UniProtKB/TrEMBL annotation, chain A:
Family to which this protein belongs: Belongs to the ABC transporter superfamily.
GO BP, sorted A to Z: peptide transport; transmembrane transport
Entry protein name: Dipeptide/oligopeptide/nickel ABC transporter ATP-binding protein
Domain named ABC transporter: residues: 6-256
Keyword Nucleotide-binding: yes
Swiss-Prot/TrEMBL keywords: ATP-binding, Nucleotide-binding, Transport
Top-rank taxon, per record: Bacteria
PANTHER family in alphabetical order: D,D-DIPEPTIDE TRANSPORT ATP-BINDING PROTEIN DDPF-RELATED, TRANSPORT ATP-BINDING PROTEIN
One MF annotation (Gene Ontology) recorded for this entry: ATP binding
Key word Transport present: yes
Organism: Fictibacillus aquaticus
UniProt cross-references to InterPro entries, sorted A to Z: AAA+_ATPase, ABC_transp_ATP-bind, ABC_transporter-like_ATP-bd, ABC_transporter-like_CS, Oligopep_ABC_C, P-loop_NTPase
One Pfam match: ABC_tran
TrEMBL record, chain B:
Record bears the keyword Glycoprotein: no
Protein's GO biological process: transmembrane transport
KW Transmembrane (keyword) present: yes
Family note: Belongs to the binding-protein-dependent transport system permease family.
Protein name: Peptide ABC transporter permease
A Pfam family recorded for this sequence: OppC_N
Recorded GO CC terms: plasma membrane
SUPFAM superfamilies given in the database record: MetI-like
Membrane topology field: Multi-pass membrane protein
Protein's cellular compartments: Cell membrane
Keywords: Cell membrane, Membrane, Transmembrane, Transmembrane helix, Transport
Annotated InterPro entries: BP-dependent_transpt_permease (IPR050366), MetI-like (IPR000515), MetI-like_sf (IPR035906), OppC_N (IPR025966)
Segments passing through the bilayer: 40-62, 103-128, 140-161, 219-248, 268-290
Length: 322, 303
């Protein structure tokens, strides 16, 4: 088997909670609590889950914008958690990020040209004419006009800004792009345009995506494989079609049953989950989902299930399939 | 490449050509536009420009030498020869006020520039690096702010010795924490913006992020409080001059002129009136301009 582009092992992020007079650590928010997955070259791995489940934190840790508390991240076989800040900075050439909010992620005082030029300057493209040429090219690649370069971000619509964000990520020819809810802030009509753009770019530049979203429809459209996260854990990971057709984990089943189907005749048994997501600062013992799981039994409350291959290529962390 | 983009609808329909008057409106230009509409701000700007011109061309405008004494003409009332009258040594007050503009503006802008440079540097470092660096720098600011500012200035001058230059240094020192705190709070809020995360994701160094992203986005409040601080600095310089701790005779410093003439306030009120008016007008000008700048640069005031 060929080496995956990215391999993540038991990645954790615990944010300390400080309290008391002396600022002693009194607890931790377990935002990501032992996540493992891999992404093959050229594929798109979708990561879904409700807000606060740790999907964005996972994405940011891959770029080490957040330092992992524990675990390993291998990029092309190299453990990037061991790299120094300086080495990591060079590594960022290979991995880029597209942000959720196209309004906040572009510096309002810079022109588009400056925004797109900056990654080139930082990664050592010295020739000014070469940079200008590349900026024009990037704008055209993402479907904008080259004369947009002199404008400021506030003169663009949300969809156009997101294209600028994508162009910025492409500027240094990365291999991996982490897209953190890239279309969540956009109108539905614009979402498909941006998704198509991302897919076209993937083909053209042989990109690998980690696509983070909470919209199951969007993720299905773009992903080859999908991972479902709940309370800092991946509970199910499978090929996109397989996951949507035959979800195994009760949480995935509940999520999918909540997707509206545009058919008035369609009657479907909806799995309604009771209660709220438990606090990640005090996650339940055993399976993180057992407090709300309609099929939970005794073992679930005591033993935490591990992610196992239940069917070829279909991983699930649930005691029902052991 | 064209093939790959087939599915992507162009953002603008192709027939919509580039508009003839396609101009990028930079945030600064936009601020200038709204500043121009503000009448009071323009009044302030005019007053300030007027005094700046006086200061620059003092040698050409002033009718007499600022230190030319003539004891026969002492305390003359305003007349065609001496528009603002003369002081106790028979020196022309108009001339002294024109030269005084030079000193007041010089002290005001230079001391504020000093405070901005030192304060901003400290504030940026404190805000960006946080932790103990922040704690140490912030405590220094707190200590400086714990003293009443004019008292601190007097203390600094009495250590350094009374002179115009030392007064300038003292005023610069007492304003450092104002700018330090301002910048620190700006950095703290700008640092959390997503475009800073984006800059990090691109692989930018801290120094570049600070200079190219955080500093430019903190410039607007510095300009506003800088302008207002010049007004206060001018008053402080005048106060130190009045107390004899600033400019020394025969330098035509407005505060010093007030102090020297206060014995003649009944017999020759013009000796006090005109320097006082000059101080008031300059300070008013800077304040009006500062207020206008604040309205123009504050994004929340935009409609």
């Amino acid at each position: 088997m060929t080496q995956p582009l990215v391999k993540v092992e038991n990645l954790k992020k615990h944010f300390p909670i400080k309290g008391g007079l002396l600022g002693k650590q009194v607890g931790a928010v377990k935002a990501v609590d032992g996540v493992s997955f891999f992404i093959n070259k050229g594929e798109t791995l979708g990561l879904v889950g409700e807000s606060g489940c740790g999907k964005s934190t996972t994405g940011r840790m891959l770029l080490r914008l957040l330092e992992p508390s524990d675990g390993k991240i291998y990029f092309e076989g190299q453990d990037i958690t061991e790299l120094s800040t300086g080495e990591m900075r060079k590594m960022r050439r290979e991995m880029q990020m597209v942000f959720q909010d196209p309004f906040a992620s572009l510096n309002p005082r810079h022109t588009v040209e400056k925004i797109l030029e900056e990654p080139l300057i930082v990664h050592g493209v010295k020739d000014k004419a070469e940079r200008k040429r590349r900026v024009k090219e990037l704008l055209e690649v993402v479907g904008l006009n080259s004369w947009h370069a002199k404008r400021y971000p506030h003169q663009f619509s949300g969809g156009q800004r997101q294209r600028i964000g994508i162009a910025r990520a492409l500027a240094v020819n990365p291999k991996l792009i982490i897209a953190d809810e890239p279309v969540s802030a956009l109108d539905v009509s614009i979402q498909s345009q941006v998704l198509n753009l991302l897919q076209d770019l993937q083909k053209e530049f042989d990109l690998t995506y980690l696509f983070i979203a909470h919209d199951l429809g969007v993720v299905r459209h773009i992903s080859d494989r999908v991972g479902v996260m709940y309370l800092g854990n991946i509970v199910e990971l499978a090929d996109s079609e397989e996951l949507y057709d035959e979800p195994m984990h009760p949480y995935t089943q509940a999520l999918l049953s909540a997707v509206p189907i545009p058919d008035v005749e369609h009657k479907k048994d909806r799995v309604i989950l009771q209660g709220d997501v438990p606090s990640p600062s005090n996650p339940p013992k055993g399976c993180p989902f057992h407090t709300r799981c309609p099929q939970a039994f005794d073992t679930c409350a005591t033993v935490k299930p591990v992610l196992q291959e239940a069917k070829p290529g279909h991983y699930v962390a649930c005691h029902l399939y052991e | 490449m064209a093939e790959a983009l087939h599915n992507t609808p162009p953002v603008l329909p192709p027939e919509m050509a580039r508009p003839a008057e396609e101009k990028a409106v930079s945030p600064w230009k936009e601020a200038w536009r709204s500043f121009r509409k503000n009448k009071l701000a323009i009044v302030g700007l005019s007053i300030v420009s007027f005094f700046i011109l006086l200061a620059i061309f003092a040698d050409l405008i002033a009718p007499y030498e600022y230190d030319a004494t003539n004891l026969r003409n002492k305390n003359l009332a305003p007349s065609a020869e001496h528009w603002f009258g003369t002081d106790e040594f028979g020196r022309d007050i108009l001339t002294r006020i024109i030269y005084g503009a030079r000193i007041s503006l010089w002290v005001g802008t230079l001391s504020v520039a000093g405070s901005i440079i030192v304060g901003s540097a400290l504030g940026i470092i404190a805000g960006y690096y946080g932790r103990w660096v922040d704690a140490v720098i912030s405590r220094i600011f707190d200590i400086l702010l714990a003293f009443p500012s004019i008292l601190l200035a007097i203390a600094v001058v009495s250590v350094l010795g009374p002179s115009l230059r030392n007064a300038l240094i003292a005023i610069a020192i007492i304003n450092v924490p104002t700018f330090g705190r301002l910048l620190r709070s700006r950095v703290l809020s700008v640092k959390e913006e997503e475009y800073i995360t984006a800059a990090k994701a691109i692989g930018m160094k801290d120094s570049r992020i600070l200079l190219h992203h955080i500093l430019p986005n903190s410039l607007a409040p510095i300009i506003v409080s800088g302008t207002l601080a010049v007004a206060t600095a001018i008053i402080e310089a005048a106060a130190l001059g009045f107390l004899g701790l600033g400019a020394q005779a025969p330098t035509p410093e407005w505060g010093k002129m007030l102090a020297d003439s206060r014995n003649y306030i009944i017999d020759a009120p013009w000796t006090v009136l005109f320097p006082g008016l000059a101080i008031m007008l300059t300070v008013l000008g800077f304040n009006l301009m500062g207020d206008g700048l604040r309205d123009a640069l504050d994004p929340r005031m935009k409609n």
